[in-house]
Amino acid sequence: MNERKKAEERFAKAFHANPNPMGICRFSDGIMVDVNEAFLKHSGYEKSELLQKSALALNIWVDRHQFARILQTLKTKGRVENEEVLLRNKAGEIRTIIYSAERISISGENFVLFSVTDITERKQKELVMRRLERLSLIGSMAAGIAHEIRNPMTTVRGFLQLNMSKLASERDKEIFRLMIAELDRANEIITNFLALGKDCSLPKQTKNLNQVIMELYPLIQADALNSHMNISLDLGDIAEININENEIKQLILNLVRNGLEAMDQPGEVKIITYMKNNQVILAVRDQGKGIKKEMLYMLGTPFFTTKAEGTGLGLATCYSIADRHNATIEVTSDEQGTTFYVLFPL
Ligand SMILES: Nc1ncnc2c1ncn2[C@@H]1O[C@H](COP(=O)(O)OP(=O)(O)OP(=O)(O)O)[C@@H](O)[C@H]1O
Ligand SMILES: [Mg+2]
User: Fold this and answer.
1) Which residue ranges does the record assign to the Histidine kinase domain (predicted)?
2) Sheet of 32-35: strands edge to edge?
3) Which of 209, 274, 328, 335 could bridge across to 236 with cysteines, CB 3.0–4.6 Å?
4) Ligand 1 near 306 CB (within 6 A)
C-alpha cells in the first residue's frame, strides 16, 4: 500500500469515528460528498438523503446571506473558524451552531471539510442565567432603595390626606386626590418590584390550573371587552399541580394583558392548557404584532417596556412567579403573534 493510500485511510477513519458532526462538500457547487455518523445523528437525516445534494437545496441554512458570507471567506481565506450560524435539522428545528470549515484538496479537486458544534441548549441556559443574574443584581440594589423611598412617601401621603379635609374648594380637593392616587400608584410599583426579589415560597395547594383559569375568566373577559378583543379557552385534560393560586392568577393576568395590548386590531387571545412530557403546559397565544428577535433576551428584565404607559414589571413578575413554582417560560413569536408557554413540572 502506498503512503498516500495509507494517509487517506487514516483520514477516513478519523473522519467517520469523530464524535463531532462533520461533513465534506464540493467547493464548486456545495454538493455533499460525505458526512460522518455524528452528523447524521445530529441532523436527523439518512445518509442517502444528504449525499449528492447541496446544503442550499436541502434548506439546511436558515440565512442564505450567512451562507454566502461563509462561502466568500472560504474563497478568500481558505477557512472559517467558529462562526455562529443557524442551521435547520431534518425535523425543521432551527439550531444555533458553531461552524468551522477548511478548504481541502482531494485528488486535485477542491472540497470543504466542515464541522459543527450545537450550542442551542448552552445558549438557552446562558440566557436564563443572564436573566437571573440581572434580576438578582438589580433586585438587591433596588430593593434597598425602594424600601427607603416608601417611608417619606408614607409621610407625604399622610399629610396630604390630613390637609385634604381642611380644603374648601372641590377643585383643590380633586388635585389632592390625584396626588394621593399617584403616590398609591408609585407605591404599587414598589410593591410589585419588591415581590420580584422574594425567594421564599408562598403557601401552595394542589389544584387544577383549569379551575384557576375559570375563576379568573370573568375578569379577563372584562379586560378583553374593554379593549374590543376576544378571549377563548382551550382547556385540556391536565393533572393537578402544586401552586400558589394568587401568584398563578397574577401570572396569567399579566400574560393575557400583554397579549391584549399587543394587538392593534380586534383579535383573539387564547388560553390553552395541555400535558406534554409529564409537564402541565399553560400557553397564552395572541394575534399581535410579535416581539422582535433582538428583544427576546430583554424579556423579564425589570422596567423593560416598549409601551408608553407600561411599567415593564409584568413579565419580570411572571418569570419570578414561574421560578418559585420550578416552572420555566418559553416564548415563540413572529408577525402573526406571540405565544408564551409556562411549563410546570409534575
Ligand atoms: N404578547 C406580547 N406581544 C408583543 N410584545 C410583548 C408581549 N408580551 C410582552 N411584550 C413586550 O415585552 C415588554 C415587557 O412586557 P411587560 O409585561 O414586562 O411590561 P409592559 O407590558 O410593558 O408593562 P406592565 O406589564 O408593567 O404594565 C412589553 O413592553 C412588550 O414590548
Ligand atoms: Mg405587561
Assistant:
1) 144-346
2) 32-35, 22-26, 109-118, 94-106, 79-88
3) 274
4) yes
Same domain, 113 and 125: no
Q: Are residues 188 and 234 in the same domain?
A: no
Q: Examine the domain organization and report whether 128 and 223 are in the same domain.
A: no
Ligand 1 atom nearest to 337, measured from its CA: 3
**How confident is the model over 264-276, as pLDDT tens digits?**
999 999 999 999 9
CA-closest candidate to residue 251, choices 326, 302, 317: 317
Query: Which of 174, 310, 214, 198 has its CA nearest to residue 254?
Result: 310
Query: What span, in angstroms and rounded, lies between the C-alpha atoms of 83 and 96?
Result: 10
Q: Which parts of the chain fold into alpha helices (H)?
A: 3-17, 37-43, 47-50, 64-77, 120-164, 170-196, 209-226, 245-262, 314-324
| Residues 126 and 113 both lie in one domain | no
Whole-angstrom distance, CA of residue 266 vs CA of residue 227:
8
- Taking residue 196's Cβ as centre, other Cβ atoms within 10 Å add up to 22
pLDDT in tens, 311-333: 888 999 899 899 889 999 999 99
Give the separation between CA 258 and CA 286, rounded to whole angstroms.
9
Cα-to-centroid distance, 139 and ligand 1 (Å):
19
The residue to which cell 399541580 is assigned? 241
The reported pLDDT for the residue numbered 197 is 66
Whether residue 302 has its Cβ less than 6 Å from ligand 1: no
Domain count, the chain: 3
Residue nearest to atom 1 of ligand 1 (CA): 259
Condensed to tens digits (0 to 9), the pLDDT of residues 152-165 reads 899 999 999 999 98
